[in-house]
Specification:
By secondary structure, the protein is an alpha+beta fold. The chain has twelve helices and four strands; from the N terminus they run H-H-H-H-H-H-E-E-H-H-E-E-H-H-H-H. It is elongated.
Length: about 260
């Protein structure tokens, strides 16, 4: 009887355990919460947007290629945008290039522009602004560490409409365009040629025929000299023969005169 009672209790406990509701796990509770429902809705929205994007690109390939080109170009411009350290490095490099030249052959335009930028840099008045796809370098009236009243008072700061006048350079696609344009022909001093006539101050690029002729002459200058000894000896013998003939003729003419 005792064993029957134990078996009955065990079967009753198993039946109650099977009938009792199963407790949910932590992941299921998080999944069914408000945050889980919102995240699932967000993922489904993004999934639907991506699907529509792929379908639209497949239906309109030209439009999709144009959009991709613009996005790729914008990313390339943002990635290759120069910063302030690159401007300072380019400025020091240009200054060293001009320092290697004599003051008599430097371009006054290039030298003046670089010297003004170096002066502003030494005074701490150069500023850099990043605009996403490009960078700007401009100058301010005072150093940021200056403790003058004019430098610290916001009411005395320069107005925003004067900002274009203070821009010194534009950085785009890894280059500083104004600095590079100012450094063109930096080793040519145009002041040396201002006293020449107008047609001598302007030089035109050589034509194709002139370039080919110069290249041909340059190649011929490297060839060894070919001296034809036999022809020179023949010329010398001819000259000697002529001289002998003249002497003989003169000697024959003398007795006739006598």
């Amino acid at each position: 009887m005792a064993s029957l009672r134990v078996a009955t209790r065990m079967f009753c406990a198993a039946a109650e355990a099977a009938a009792a509701p199963v407790s949910k796990t932590r992941w299921e509770r998080l999944k069914n919460s408000k945050a889980g429902v919102w995240c699932r809705g967000l993922v489904s929205d993004y999934k639907e947007a991506c699907r529509e994007m792929v379908v639209g690109a497949w239906e309109r390939p030209v439009k999709a290629s144009v959009y991709m080109t613009f996005l790729g170009g914008a990313w390339a411009c943002f990635y290759t945008k120069p910063d302030q350290s690159s401007f300072e490095g380019a400025l020091l490099e240009r200054s060293n290039q001009l320092a290697l030249l004599s003051p008599w052959i430097r371009s006054a335009n290039s030298d003046g522009h670089v010297q003004s930028l170096v002066k502003l840099r030494n005074e701490g008045r150069l500023r850099h602004a990043s605009l996403g796809l490009l960078s700007l370098v401009y100058h301010s009236s005072y150093d940021p560490d200056a403790t003058l009243y004019e430098a610290q008072c916001s009411n005395l700061s320069e107005p925003w409409w004067e900002f274009p006048r203070r821009v010194l350079d534009v950085g785009f696609v890894g280059r500083w365009w104004i600095l590079d344009s100012k450094m063109q022909d930096y080793d040519v001093n145009t002041e040396e040629f201002k006293h020449l006539p107008a047609h001598m101050q302007v030089t035109s690029p050589p034509t194709v025929q002139e370039v080919e002729r110069n290249e041909r002459l340059h190649k011929e200058s490297w060839l060894p000299l070919m001296v034809e000894v036999e022809e020179e000896e023949e010329k010398e013998t001819k000259v000697v023969d002529r001289m002998e003939e003249r002497i003989s003729e003169e000697s024959q003419m003398k007795p006739l005169k006598d």
